[in-house]
Amino acid sequence: MDEESEIPRVELTAGAARLVRRLSETHGPLMFHQSGGCCDGSAPMCYPDGEFRTGGSDVLLAELAVEGVEEPVRFWMSRSQYEVWSHTRLIVDVVEGRGSGFSLEAPEGVRFLTRSRVVDG
């Protein structure tokens, strides 16, 4: 197994995983999309799976296995953003404060936030 395959491209903090479990109980299967926009558009947005239409301008980075969630949570990123972040590991966290009205966590008074770490190689 090579080093790159051992390093997850995307991971959730414990707090983000708890929120994903809660959201999946209410909304069913989920997905994330990380765009290259500004403001809220640069935050990972959480949707019911399939609600955000992906296409050739998007890259599937991960299918996250979350304990207590039956289906994998797919994490997509816009291709242009991926080109900038291709050498990083993305860590999805949750912080206090209201994010975008389109992301499922908005009514919870919290928002998802992407942190990153550079990956060697």
Structural key phrases:
121 residues, alpha/beta, four-stranded mixed sheet, three-stranded mixed sheet, 3 helices, 7 strands, 21% helix
Could you characterize what this model shows?
There is one protein chain. This protein is of the alpha/beta class and 121 residues long. The chain has helices at residues 3-6, 14-27, 79-85, and strands at 10-12, 30-34, 45-48, 58-64, 73-78, 88-96, 110-118. The strands form 2 sheets. The chain has a 4-stranded mixed beta sheet. Strands 1-6-7 form a 3-stranded mixed beta sheet. A hairpin with an 8-residue loop joins strand 4 and strand 5 (73-78). The model has no long low-confidence stretch (mean pLDDT 87).
The helix fraction, in percent, is: 10-25%
Radius of gyration: 14 Å
Structural category: alpha/beta
Question: Mean pLDDT across all residues, rounded?
Answer: 87
Q: How many beta-strand segments? A: 7
- Spatial strand order of the main sheet: 3-2-5-4
Span between N and C termini?
15 Å
Regions with little confidence, pLDDT below 50 for 5+ residues: none
Gross geometry: globular
Main β-sheet: number of strands, strand sense, barrel status?
A: 4 strands, mixed
Q: Return the string of H and E elements.
A: HEHEEEEHEE
